[in-house]
């Protein structure tokens, strides 16, 4: 028997639980002028642990990498380019104990010998000059959507950097929080779905490719910088979803739901069905009468439930619905870097 295909599309919106100039720089000599040893810098973040997620080492995103910037502290305006030894310096999670992550510098970092103070800001991942680029004054991240977009995060204590010196030992970075929104596309078979049906193509299109993120005001989210279309190529060749369902997550800028849409094409031999699904057309069943939006630090899940029916009695209706549920957050961390 030949089949035609129709789709039930549902959406879940998933919410997180809640994630003086130095005369002698530390890299100039192996010890201080008075013969003292160098004092390593250790960084720590007292984040809120998410109760829905265990704190395994691999739970820290972006290959466990963070970037750190330090500056010489001066009352008033701080020059965030004034301490080149810690400028987009990388650190990597090495262990996790009692919900606290311990990081190791990718190369050792030390306090100034003379006791002068430094201030710190942090983010993840380390700026790479492609998807994440530091501004020349080191106060913003320029973001560009790419096919393998990292889950960009910023540290909450960037808001009010505290001046510290080698007598303080520990630098508190605060929580790491998501800057972007997640969109997860899931395709599942209905009990009457023909197992021969394949996903032929799956695209996610956004009307914005670039944005900037103020490292000192990350909770306000990225500021959109253009109106250039970007398209994630999620599936480009025939992919099975029966009996094992398909799921893929992409990252988008918050507030861009009006220009976000999903294209999907299914095939069953010579037969196919496809369509574009704009995000604003999906109703929010949790808050009746409203539409779904892309929010910072929140995951929106679209579920395509695929059924098949005889071509003698086709049913090509597409049902759209949405609801809210908790999201198992990975975005807030307790952190120590040493």
SSE blueprint:
Blueprint: E1 3-15, E2 42-45, E3 65-72, E4 87-97, E5 100-105, E6 118-124, E7 132-134, E8 140-144, E9 153-155, E10 170-172, E11 176-178, E12 181-189, E13 198-206, E14 210-214, E15 223-224, E16 230-235, E17 246-252, E18 261-268, E19 271-278, E20 283-284, E21 290-291, E22 299-310, E23 319-326, E24 334-337
Parallel strand pairs: 1-23, 2-10, 5-24, 12-22
Antiparallel strand pairs: 1-22, 2-24, 3-4, 3-6, 4-5, 6-9, 7-8, 8-14, 9-11, 12-17, 13-16, 13-18, 14-15, 18-19, 20-21
List keywords for this structure.
disordered N terminus; mainly beta; 338 residues; five-stranded mixed beta sheet; nine-stranded mixed beta sheet; disordered C terminus
The main sheet comes to: 9 strands, mixed
Pairing-aware structural class of the strands and helices? mainly beta
Head-to-tail CA distance between termini = 65 Å
- Tally the helices: 0
What level of helicity do the residues show?
under 10%
User: Which percent band covers the strand fraction?
Assistant: 35-45%
E-strand count: 24
- The coarse overall form would be elongated
Main sheet strand line-up: 10-2-24-5-4-3-6-9-11
Low-confidence stretches: 1-5, 17-30, 46-53, 316-338
């Amino acid at each position: 028997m030949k089949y035609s295909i129709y789709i039930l599309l549902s959406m879940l919106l998933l919410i997180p639980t809640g994630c003086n100039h130095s005369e002698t720089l530390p890299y100039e000599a192996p010890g201080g002028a008075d013969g003292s040893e160098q004092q390593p810098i250790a960084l720590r973040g007292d984040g809120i642990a998410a109760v829905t997620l265990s704190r395994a080492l691999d739970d820290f995103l972006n290959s466990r990498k963070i970037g750190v910037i330090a500056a010489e502290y001066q009352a008033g305006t701080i020059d965030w380019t004034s301490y080149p030894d810690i400028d987009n310096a990388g650190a990597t999670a090495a262990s996790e104990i009692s919900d606290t992550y311990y990081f190791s510098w990718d190369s050792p970092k030390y306090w100034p010998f003379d006791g002068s103070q430094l201030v710190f800001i942090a983010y993840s991942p380390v700026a790479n000059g492609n998807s994440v680029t530091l501004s020349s004054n080191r106060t913003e991240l320029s973001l560009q959507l790419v096919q393998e977009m990292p889950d960009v995060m910023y540290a909450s204590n960037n808001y009010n950097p505290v001046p510290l010196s080698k007598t303080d030992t520990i630098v508190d970075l605060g929580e790491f929080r998501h800057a972007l929104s997640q969109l997860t596309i899931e395709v599942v078979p209905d009990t009457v779905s023909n197992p021969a049906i394949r996903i032929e193509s799956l695209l996610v299109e956004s009307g914005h490719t670039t944005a900037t993120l103020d490292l000192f005001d990350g909770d306000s989210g990225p500021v959109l910088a253009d109106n250039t279309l970007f398209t994630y190529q999620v599936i480009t060749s025939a992919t099975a979803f029966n009996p094992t369902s398909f799921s893929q997550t992409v990252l988008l800028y918050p507030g861009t739901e009006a220009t976000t849409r999903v294209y999907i094409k299914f095939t069953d031999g010579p037969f196919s069905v496809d369509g574009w699904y704009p995000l604003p057309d999906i109703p929010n069943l949790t808050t009746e009468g409203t539409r779904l939006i892309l929010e910072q630090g929140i995951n929106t899940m679209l579920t395509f439930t695929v059924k098949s029916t005889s071509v003698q009695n086709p049913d090509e209706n597409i049902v759209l619905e949405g609801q809210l549920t908790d999201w198992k957050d990975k975005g807030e961390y307790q952190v120590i870097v040493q």
